Recover the amino acids of this structure.
């Protein structure tokens, strides 16, 4: 019933709402459409009239220019007579400021204002005809300021002059006072709500009426996007670029002229009427809707809440089921009074039993538990029932195939009788067999690793004591022989003695280095957040003799991060890298070392750059291997294990190390990364 009632009430409410909305929409749209159509028709008529007036005015000026062009071509008139004719033609047209005649070089040949003699060869109306002498049409210039009176704005309407051979010989132009022209042509729109704008096809404004001198000459993107097709009138609504008001706009192009006439009317009053009408109609519709809504609103709200709760409950159950399946988690329920047991399909899958063949009871379940685990399971269950606390069990359970499988059970009492006796126990079951096997393998591997570490420690002891002791004896006895037989040995014999002692010393040094390499990670301090600059400073303290001897220059950044590192290993890392940068240089060369630190997404990048001997690209892979040397011991001392130690320290802390070098004598850069966050030691 509820399922049918709620859609029915909602449908009735929607139907009434739709009818009210349709009535409201028709009334509002009809009023709005009628009002805007009336305004559009009005501005369209004004624009047609204005377009005709502008066209007639342009044709009138062009006829005057054609007449003057004929007079200018006559050889019987001198300049004075031609200027008199210009003034005569100008008299009935107050918008014409002057007539101008220029020769083909832009020199003034006649001017209706003879008292003036301006330079006009650079004017746009001359330059355009000079560049387009065969255009065959009149040209309207952009708005210009008069050079005799910079307060006067005008446009020039000009024509190119040609001789009988068709050669360009000059320009005849009429300077039109824009303010006067706007006053004459803008009488149709003198009231405050209308405006007339004249522009070229690119949106450059000739004038706006009511007169707005600062708009003259401006380039309007709004107008440029509303030019229209020749011979047609167009209408639209825009936001005025002049006063920011919403306006009804009608516009059209003038035939044979690159001129567009715009007539607009302020929409404020009409929009106010439309808004007022909309508000009245809205209030009527809302009152009717509110009256109807009160009749069913409360019931609809209650039903909707009920359905929402039902949906949420179903979604919650579905999420729980999906999560349970993904986790392979079984759910069981035990009636403690009857011993009846219920569990879901997940537990059937875990144990592999068939439903008809396996009796679901507490005793049947206990019979599947491994005899060694059963006492502990029963003890924990009884303790949980007494304490009313949840329990956690891990035990082996026999599956249908006869194999023993590790299970994890969780549960708690969820209901009691009036005397406080537990009635119902519910919980979950999880197959943890693979986890327990992995634990066993991990324990075995840990034990093997501990044995390996013990063997390694024993090896380190052998290296440090048992192997070094014979070397020290060899070295000592050779030195005694050398002293005893000092007077009996020739040069070759002494050299052979030196080879023996030197070889023993170098082998001892290599054993010490190998011992240090094996101790990395075992003898180091615990990993802690440490200022990296402090590690460098302590490393440089050990290197002071080499720094002073070579006068090494070390450039460090100002900011140093704190890093998670074993302190003594961090010092050894910087000491080895800085020591190499000082050692591997050309003789008599002052080491220059620069340290760079860069913050990356998950790491800090450290680079130690030097001006030393560099490294050939084909040798760089050998650098970080144990006992790998690129130079003879006679050139540079060392065991060839220092960079291997650096690599082991960096990799143990979750980073990597590499070298960059352009080649021999090009310097080197040893770079390594360390994690920004604490990482487990490798």
């Amino acid at each position: 019933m509820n399922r049918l009632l709620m859609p029915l009430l909602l449908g009735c409410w929607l139907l009434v709402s739709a009818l009210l909305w349709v009535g409201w929409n028709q009334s509002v749209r009809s009023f709005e459409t009628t009002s805007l159509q009336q305004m559009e028709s009005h501005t369209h008529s004004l624009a047609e009239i204005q377009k005709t007036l502008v066209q007639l005015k342009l044709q009138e000026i062009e006829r005057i220019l054609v007449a003057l062009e004929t007079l200018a071509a006559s050889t019987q008139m001198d300049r004075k007579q031609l200027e008199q004719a210009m003034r005569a033609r100008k008299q009935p047209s107050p918008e014409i400021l002057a007539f101008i005649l220029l020769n083909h070089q832009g020199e003034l040949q006649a001017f209706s204002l003879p008292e003036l003699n301006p330079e006009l060869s650079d004017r746009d109306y001359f330059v355009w005809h000079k560049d387009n002498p065969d255009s065959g049409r009149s040209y309207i210039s952009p708005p210009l300021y008069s050079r005799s009176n910079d307060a006067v704005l005008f446009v020039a309407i000009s024509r190119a002059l040609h001789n009988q051979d068709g050669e360009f010989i000059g320009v005849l132009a009429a300077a039109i006072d824009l303010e006067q022209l706007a006053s004459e042509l803008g009488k149709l729109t003198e009231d405050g709500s209308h405006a007339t704008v004249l522009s070229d096809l690119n949106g450059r404004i000739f004038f706006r009426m009511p007169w707005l001198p600062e708009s003259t000459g401006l380039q309007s993107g709004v107008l440029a996007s509303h030019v229209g097709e020749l011979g047609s009138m167009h209408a639209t609504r825009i936001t005025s670029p002049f006063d920011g008001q919403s306006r009804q706009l009608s516009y059209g192009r003038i035939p044979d002229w690159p001129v567009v006439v715009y007539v607009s009317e302020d929409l404020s009053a009409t929009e106010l009427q439309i808004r007022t009408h909309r508000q009245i109609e809205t209030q009527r519709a809302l009152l009717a809707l509110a009256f109807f809504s009160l009749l069913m609103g409360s019931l609809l709200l209650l039903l909707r809440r009920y359905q929402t709760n039902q949906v949420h409950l179903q979604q919650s159950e579905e999420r729980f089921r999906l999560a349970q399946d993904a986790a392979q988690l079984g759910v069981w329920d035990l009636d403690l009074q009857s011993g009846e047991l219920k569990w879901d399909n997940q537990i059937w899958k875990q144990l592999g039993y068939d439903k008809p063949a396996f009796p679901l009871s507490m005793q049947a379940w206990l019979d599947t538990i491994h005899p060694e685990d059963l006492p502990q399971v029963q003890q924990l269950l009884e303790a949980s029932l007494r304490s009313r606390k949840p329990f956690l069990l891990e035990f082996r359970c026999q599956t249908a195939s006869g194999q023993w499988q590790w299970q994890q059970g969780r549960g708690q009492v969820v209901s009691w009788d009036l005397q406080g006796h537990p009635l119902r126990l519910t919980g979950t079951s999880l197959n943890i067999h693979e986890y327990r096997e992995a634990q066993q393998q991990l324990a075995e591997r840990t034990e093997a690793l501990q044995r390996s570490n013990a063997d390694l420690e024993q090896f380190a002891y052998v290296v440090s004591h048992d192997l070094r002791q014979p070397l020290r004896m060899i070295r000592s006895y050779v030195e005694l022989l050398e002293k005893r037989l000092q007077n009996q040995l020739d040069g070759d014999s002494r050299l052979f003695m030196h080879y023996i002692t030197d070889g023993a010393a170098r082998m001892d040094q290599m054993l010490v280095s190998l011992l240090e390499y094996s101790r990395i990670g075992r003898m180091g301090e615990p990993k802690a957040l440490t200022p990296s600059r402090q590690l460098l400073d302590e490393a440089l303290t050990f290197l002071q003799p080499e720094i002073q001897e070579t006068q090494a220059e070390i450039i460090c950044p100002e900011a140093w991060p704190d890093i998670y590192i074993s302190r003594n290993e961090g010092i050894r890392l910087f000491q080895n890298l800085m020591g190499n940068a000082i050692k591997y240089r050309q003789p008599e060369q002052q080491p220059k070392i620069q340290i760079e630190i860069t913050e990356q997404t998950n790491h800090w990048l450290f680079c130690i750059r030097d001006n030393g001997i560099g490294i050939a690209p084909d040798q760089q892979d050998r650098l970080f291997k144990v006992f790998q040397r690129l130079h003879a011991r006679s050139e540079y001392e060392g065991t060839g294990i220092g960079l291997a130690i650096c690599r082991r320290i960096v990799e143990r802390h979750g980073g990597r190390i590499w070298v960059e070098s352009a080649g021999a004598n090009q310097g080197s850069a040893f770079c390594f990364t360390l994690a920004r966050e604490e990482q487990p030691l490798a």
